[in-house]
């Protein structure tokens, strides 16, 4: 049975021998490379030849929303992320956070319509309660 102190016994000698036999790495001359400017061919090789178009998908894709959410957001289509941002802007503007517990939102009439008539909503529930207001498109 080996003890914790004897677990790696002898490895120092192995590592020391390996370090002595390894050749030192050559040092790069920093002064000579910094004064050179990259050529046009090198610059062209660094850029990818095909540029990818940014496609929005998932929670970033604008989707049609219910009239209830439209009244609060002001647009017929919005992404899920954008909708949550607009809800938070509305909450901050109207000071609807519970002062003793900032994670809790006290709903006014507009938010009660949006959140199924609930008086108080936790901030983690907002995205879940907004889900039915996004109209599914095929």
Explain what this protein looks like in three dimensions.
The chain has 138 residues and is mostly helical. It contains 7 helices and 4 strands; from the N terminus they run H-H-H-E-H-E-H-E-H-E-H. It is elongated, with a radius of gyration of 30 Å.
In short:
With 138 residues, the chain is mainly alpha-helical. The chain is 40% helix and 7% strand.
Set down the secondary structure blueprint:
Blueprint (H helix, E strand, L loop, with lengths): L10 H11 L8 H5 L5 H7 L16 E2 L2 H7 L3 E2 L1 H14 L10 E3 L2 H6 L5 E3 L3 H5 L8
Antiparallel strand pairs: 1-2, 3-4
Q: What best-fitting shape do the alpha-carbon axes yield? A: elongated
> What structural category characterises the helix and strand content?
mainly alpha
As a whole number of angstroms, the C-alpha radius of gyration is: 30 Å
Question: Which stretches are poorly predicted, pLDDT < 50 over at least 5 residues?
Answer: none
Strand count, sense and closure of the main sheet?
A: 2 strands, antiparallel
How far apart the termini lie comes to 66 Å
Give the ordered list of helices and strands.
HHHEHEHEHEH
Across the major sheet, the strand order is 1-2
Summarize the amount of helix as a percent range: 25-40%
Number of helix segments?
7
Strand content: 5-15%
Features of this protein?
138 residues; elongated
